[in-house]
Amino acid sequence: VQLVESGGGLVQDGASLRLSCAASGFTFRLYAMGWFRQALGKEREFVATISRSASATYYEDSVKGRFTISRDNVENTVSLQMNSLKSEDTAVYYCAAGAGYYSSDYRTYTYWGQGTLVTVSS
């Protein structure tokens, strides 16, 4: 099983970034997918999740209206479009796959990527 994130980088306040996560080694369409982040010195935090069929999404309050999660069950990828970035969005972003219902609870996710660093300078 592999989840490989890409797309992180250093941007200025107000900019946009698109993170991608390529999945392999499991039946992607049967898994809910999520994005989490962890800032330096802080606990891991839920960002967004999407159901297996992409019919439902759920976001952490601070990113609602700015971030959009999407998935492609043919290409086995999940993406996170991040607009209007703020310095408080600076973190390592992880994608994760969970066999159950889409959830904000990290304990429901089985597979995790290595993370990609997003740095937003003010």
What's the quick description here?
This protein is an all-beta fold. It has no helices and eleven strands.
Sheet with most strands: 7 strands, mixed
Number of strands: 11
Distance between the termini: 37 Å
Question: What does the overall shape look like?
Answer: globular
Ranges where pLDDT stays below 50 over 5 or more residues in a row are none
Radius of gyration over all CA atoms, rounded: 13 Å
Give the helix tally. 0
Helix content: under 10%
- Arithmetic mean pLDDT: 97
Order of helices and strands: EEEEEEEEEEE
Structural class: mainly beta
Q: In oligomeric terms, what are we looking at?
A: single chain
- Beta fraction: over 45%
Structure notes:
There is one protein chain. The chain has 122 residues and is an all-beta fold. 0% of the residues lie in helices and 50% in strands. The chain contains no helices and eleven strands. Strands 2, 4, 5, 6, 9, 10 and 11 form a seven-stranded mixed β-sheet that branches. The protein has a four-stranded antiparallel β-sheet with strand order 1-3-8-7, with no helix packed on it. A hairpin with a 6-residue loop joins strand 4 and strand 5. The radius of gyration is 13 Å and the shape is globular.
